[in-house]
Amino acid sequence: MSHAASATPEQHHAFDGFDWTPENAKRVKVILARYPEVRKQSAVMPLLDLAQRQVGAQTKTQGWLPIPVIEFIAGLLGMPYIRVLEVATFYTMYNLAPVGRHHVQVCGTTPCMLRGSDDVMKACKDKGLAKGHTTADGLFTLTEVECMGTCANAPMVQINDDNYEDLDYASMTRILEELAAGKAPKTGPQIDRQNSAPVGEQTSLKEYMA
Amino acid sequence: MPKLTVDGIEVEVPAGATVLQACELAGKEVPRFCYHERLSIAGNCRMCLVEVKPGPPKPQASCALPAAEGQEVRTDSPLVKKAREGVMEFLLINHPLDCPICDQGGECDLQDQSVAYGRGRTRYTENKRAVTEKYMGPIIKTAMTRCIHCTRCVRFAEEVAGTDEIGALYRGENMQITSYLEAAVKSELSGNVIDLCPVGALTSKPYAFEARPWELTKTSGICVMDAVGTNIRIDARGPAVLRVLPRVNDDVNEEWASDKTRYAPLGLSKRRLDKPYVRRAGKLEAASWAEAFAAVKTGLSDLSGNQIGAVAGELLDVESMVALKDLMKSLGSDRFECRTDGMALPGGGAGAYRFNTGIAGIEDADVVLLVGANPRWDAPLVNTRLRKAVVKKGAKVFNVGPEVDLTYPVTQLGDGAVLGKLPKAAADALKSATRPAIIVGAAALTRGDAPAILAALGKIARAAKIGAEGFNVLHTAASRVGGLDIGFTHDGGIAEVLGSGLKALIVHGADEIDTNLEGVFKVYIGHHGDLGARGADVILPSASFAEKDGTYVNMEGRVQRSYRAVFAPGDAREDWAILRALSEVLGSKLPYDSFAALRARIAAEWPHLAEEGIAPASGEIDFGTGGDFDAAPIGRFIHDFYLTNAVARASEVMQDCSATLLHGAPALEAAE
């Protein structure tokens, strides 16, 4: 995103000569096989995602898309560089600058805000996270994002590929602490509920209960 | 052919037309920013909203809505008025109110349409968005805060120019138009995005803060930078040509112009020859016209007939060449030539040296064989047509000669000798084509083995049954076809004209060849102090294409008239007047005292030059008997697109383009 920190030329050049790892090269074949040869440009989004994950694996972070990687994918798909860059800059899930090992994306849209996303944000700040920045230890990058479609379980954050829902100050703090300690906190709702079912017992359609 | 009504007016539109086009047919103006006739439909500015029944009860974008039978369209209802006001208000939310310092002012679509369709006042009190400036090279000046994201420039670069360099990054309010990594836009057609931009986001860097459109005198002209004959409008204020814009001519340039067409004419005020010069004791000294003519007379005394030669340059109009030819004839010489590059051409009628398929016609070709031609540089607007043929209509292009990026897929066949035995794929494609075309360029025809190449092309044409209508010479010189039409040629070509026995040479604007010959008295008639003027014994300053009326014949044989936009500087005079005055001094007065009389004389001998348009040409082409192929590979004819003639070389913008775009010099930051 335009207001996020941008990468330095050195950070970009570090990925000159980027190529797939052997495992990813196999995945690329599978992805390309989904589309007809003349429409292989359709593979641009899954390939950008794969490349970002590979960069992440190499740097032990959530990965990002340096310019040499974007050009590598453009070359692979026979697309002009600018067309791939357009895609990479349009979708917020593609990172244009390095992020930390955990990319904490706090939703601040209205339902989450009404349900206490300010507390969640405060928990992050108190743990030393700052919007648009990566912590000095390289563990966390904080981004405020718009609606992630989990409004029933607001407030929520997305960290890497997982959602953490029904948060408050304490649970958010605990999640960050567990992540920092290298543990895997429980994903999904952080209170007693299954997915987005009602909290506690069923609240409607009771006449259909057995 | 759907029939529909627009504001109660019934119109019938071609199938596939849009509602917007139907409105135009009905004579109703529909405001628009993103829609452009020659680009694909984007539908993202929402300015062209109209009410359409049947359909959803809300205004619809007419540019992207197909016209259908029985539609009732309203462009004058209160709903439409309100919708336009709303769209206008949104567009202006982030548009700065800097019209007084914006170069687009006075010719700005946003300005005009906000006056016509806007609310007149703003209700917006928040902060406006600001966007950082983008570097786009020596030609395009950017003020991206003014951008309204119509994406015309993006679509032009992708669809017409074929160089995907401009794109829209980020999204929503953060969307920005930029070139890839903010590099200079390298397309030779980049100037067109300045015209396309409906606001002041992309403006002309060389023209920045020069003038307001209402201060300019606008004159119709013809571009002489290449042989396309681009129709131009020369905008001048006082004695200075400030800018050149294309005029619409669907048969020639559509509405595009190459960057050379636009910015080379800025060289018209630089390095000019504005008074006659005479060489005295080895040094050129300024002189009066009388002294200069006397010096020519002295130089030519005791010489007769073919001891005197003449060469005509690439930027000349037909009238100038006819006057020079008449002068040479009256001196008893037939030693004159306009093919300064030594181009060999097949024998036959005018069809043997024209671009017979036509610039617009080449769009319909289905198989094209390029021989020693780089249309992207030789004639950029022929290349856009070829690109259309390939990309939109699926034509196949084969290339013989050096490999070049023409912005569309080309099958590389090899070098000249491959013409002797064309690979089967190419030969079969040509044979089975319905509209095949052979395009042979100057790089092939100026070689020693041009006869072999032509003979091989003749064989290919016979084998594939390609007639004259499929044979095309891709000329690069604006004067060339006109010169050939009036027979400004010598049987032995330029080599013989400059060869032994030459005692005096009149060089008329020929700057691309070395005309400094040992022991030859040289008179230079021209407008720029370039290669031709160097080493001249007498210099007679003449008018450039913008400073005289003239007739030009483009590569298709299309006769077009250009008009005087400004007067020639200083003592410089129009070419025909110089030659007429000189002829009197030399004692063989030319029989015309006015430009009209000269035109009448031309019309008498070459009636087709008296009328604009293409005169039918004889289809007979004699490809000759051939010769041996030269093993040396075919080179490029144009080595530097931006510096192909004296005017372009004098233009600082063209020098800058050449240095930064072709030779990779670092871009200079403006000192502001």
From TrEMBL, chain A:
Against CDD domains, the record matches this protein to: TRX_Fd_NuoE
Compositionally biased tracts (Polar residues):
192-210
What does the note under cofactor report?
Answer: Binds 1 [2Fe-2S] cluster.
UniProt keyword terms in alphabetical order: 2Fe-2S, Iron, Iron-sulfur, Metal-binding, NAD, Translocase
Which Pfam families does its entry note?
2Fe-2S_thioredx
Q: Which GO terms describe its biological process?
A: inorganic cation transmembrane transport
Q: Name one GO molecular function term.
A: NADH dehydrogenase activity
- Keyword Hydrolase carried by entry: no
Instruction: Write out the GO cellular component annotations.
Output: catalytic complex; membrane protein complex; organelle envelope; organelle membrane
Q: Where is this region: Disordered?
A: 183-210
Q: Spell out the family assignment given in the record's similarity comment.
A: Belongs to the complex I 24 kDa subunit family.
- What's the protein called, per UniProt? NADH-quinone oxidoreductase subunit E
Q: Which organism is it from?
A: Sphingosinicella soli
Lineage, top ranks: Bacteria, Pseudomonadati, Pseudomonadota, Alphaproteobacteria, Sphingomonadales
Automatic annotation (TrEMBL), chain B:
**InterPro entries reported in the protein's UniProt record:** 2Fe-2S_ferredoxin-like_sf, 2Fe-2S_ferredoxin-type, Mopterin_OxRdtase, Mopterin_OxRdtase_4Fe-4S_dom, NADH_UbQ_OxRdtase_75kDa_su_CS, NADH_UbQ_OxRdtase_ferredoxin, NADH_UbQ_OxRdtase_Gsu, NADH_UbQ_OxRdtase_Gsu_4Fe4S-bd
Q: Which BP terms in the Gene Ontology apply to this protein?
A: ATP synthesis coupled electron transport
Q: Which residues form the 2Fe-2S ferredoxin-type domain?
A: 2-79
Kindly state what the record says about how the cofactor is bound: Binds 1 [2Fe-2S] cluster per subunit.
Q: Which cofactor does it need?
A: [4Fe-4S] cluster; [2Fe-2S] cluster
Q: Which residues form the 4Fe-4S His(Cys)3-ligated-type domain?
A: 79-118
> Which keywords does the record carry?
2Fe-2S, 4Fe-4S, Iron, Iron-sulfur, Metal-binding, NAD, Quinone, Translocase
Q: Which GO terms label this protein's molecular function in UniProt?
A: 2 iron, 2 sulfur cluster binding; 4 iron, 4 sulfur cluster binding; metal ion binding; NADH dehydrogenase (ubiquinone) activity; oxidoreductase activity, acting on NAD(P)H; quinone binding
Reaction it catalyzes: a quinone + NADH + 5 H(+)(in) = a quinol + NAD(+) + 4 H(+)(out)
List the SUPFAM superfamilies hit by this protein, alphabetically.
2Fe-2S ferredoxin-like, 4Fe-4S ferredoxins, Formate dehydrogenase/DMSO reductase, domains 1-3
Q: What EC number is given for this enzyme?
A: 7.1.1.-
| Any Pfam family | Fer4_NDSU1
Q: Name one GO cellular component term.
A: membrane
Q: Which residues form the 4Fe-4S Mo/W bis-MGD-type domain?
A: 216-272
The record's annotation in SMART domains points to: NADH-G_4Fe-4S_3
Q: Which family does it belong to?
A: Belongs to the complex I 75 kDa subunit family.
| Role noted for this protein | NDH-1 shuttles electrons from NADH, via FMN and iron-sulfur (Fe-S) centers, to quinones in the respiratory chain. Couples the redox reaction to proton translocation (for every two electrons transferred, four hydrogen ions are translocated across the cytoplasmic membrane), and thus conserves the redox energy in a proton gradient.
**Protein name (record):** NADH-quinone oxidoreductase
Write down the species: Sphingosinicella soli
Instruction: Supply the source organism's classification.
Output: Bacteria, Pseudomonadati, Pseudomonadota, Alphaproteobacteria, Sphingomonadales
